Amino acid sequence: MKSKVATDLHHLEAIAFCATVDAIRKAKGKPRAEDLPPGTIARMLAEIDIINDTLCMLGIDPGDLGGWESQSR
Questions:
Q1: pLDDT score at 73
Q2: Cα(58)–Cα(62) distance, integer angstroms
Q3: pLDDT at residue 57 is higher than 70
Q4: CA distance 62 to 60
Q5: From the CB of residue 14, how many other CB atoms can be counted at a distance below 10 Å?
Q6: What gap in Å lies between CA 22 and CA 50, rounded to an integer?
Q7: If pLDDT is split at 50, 70 and 90, which confidence band does 63 have?
Q8: Quick one: CA dihedral 26, 36, 38, 49, positive or negative?
Q9: In this model, does residue 39 exceed pLDDT 90?
Q10: What are the sequence ranges of the domains in the chain?
């Protein structure tokens, strides 16, 4: 079982990672999904874009995953 310190550290690392993705997106002028109306296409597209940016931060090319975008090409 992981210690509380290790669990807290992982939690803090995850928060820092999310903050980094948000900061880069803000610098690029990209919207936050939370700032868009729920249930709209704009929010859905922003959420997909956030996932793609997160994958890129992890060094993963979203196009290599064979998702819905690759099927439409």
A1: 44
A2: 10
A3: yes
A4: 6
A5: 10
A6: 9
A7: confident
A8: negative
A9: yes
A10: 4-71
Percent of the chain residues topping a pLDDT of 70: 88
CA angle (28, 50, 27) in 5-degree steps: 15
Q: Are 22 and 54 in contact (CB under 8 A)?
A: no
Structure tokens at 35: 């700032």
> Tokens 């290599």, residue?
64
Q: Which residues contact 53 (CB under 8 A, 6 or more apart)?
A: 21, 24, 25, 30
CA distance to 19, 43, 47, 63, 71, per residue, from 33 (Å): 14, 5, 6, 21, 25
Gyration radius (Cα) of the chain, Å: 15
